[in-house]
Design brief:
24% of the residues lie in helices and 35% in strands. It is α/β, with parallel strands linked by helices. A hairpin with a 2-residue loop joins β2 and β3.
């Protein structure tokens, strides 16, 4: 088995499309009333599914976390420490909820956290080297 992508069950599709497109720069071409959103971001499939539609499809009801939640995070990488700071500031200025300002971690990473409009955590981090060299 290979990882193909990941999806987020969303309550308000329009708000989430605007956030990921306008705040984080994801290439989303669907309209705000789209039933499902599929896109590729850096060779990873990223999907937004309306909660109610998914529940109807599988004929099952689910519980969803409320507010800012630690259920999972989406990790975004930038090449330099300076980009962590600037991307954090840009995202917050465009409406992302600040969670943790840029911080130098003891393991050598500079990282910060924001949340999307439905409380999902998003990390922006760097080891101050290009993505391809991040684990070397």
């Amino acid at each position: 088995m290979r990882l193909d992508g990941f999806g987020i069950m969303v309550n308000d599709m329009g708000t989430m499309i605007r956030f990921y497109r306008d705040v984080l720069g994801f290439e989303i071409k669907e309209n705000e009333d789209a039933q499902n959103v599929y896109l590729i971001k850096d060779n990873t499939l990223f999907m937004l599914y309306p909660r109610k539609s998914f529940e109807k499809m599988v004929n099952r009801k689910f519980d969803y976390p409320g507010g800012v939640n630690g259920h999972y995070e989406i990790a975004l990488y930038v090449d330099t420490f300076g980009e962590v700071d600037s991307e954090y500031e840009k995202a917050v200025a465009k409406g992302a909820q600040p969670i943790l300002p840029p911080t130098d971690e003891p393991w050598g990473q500079r990282t910060c956290y924001i949340a999307d409009p439905e409380g999902n955590l998003i990390e922006i981090g760097s080891f101050n080297r290009p993505f391809e060299q991040r684990q070397g």
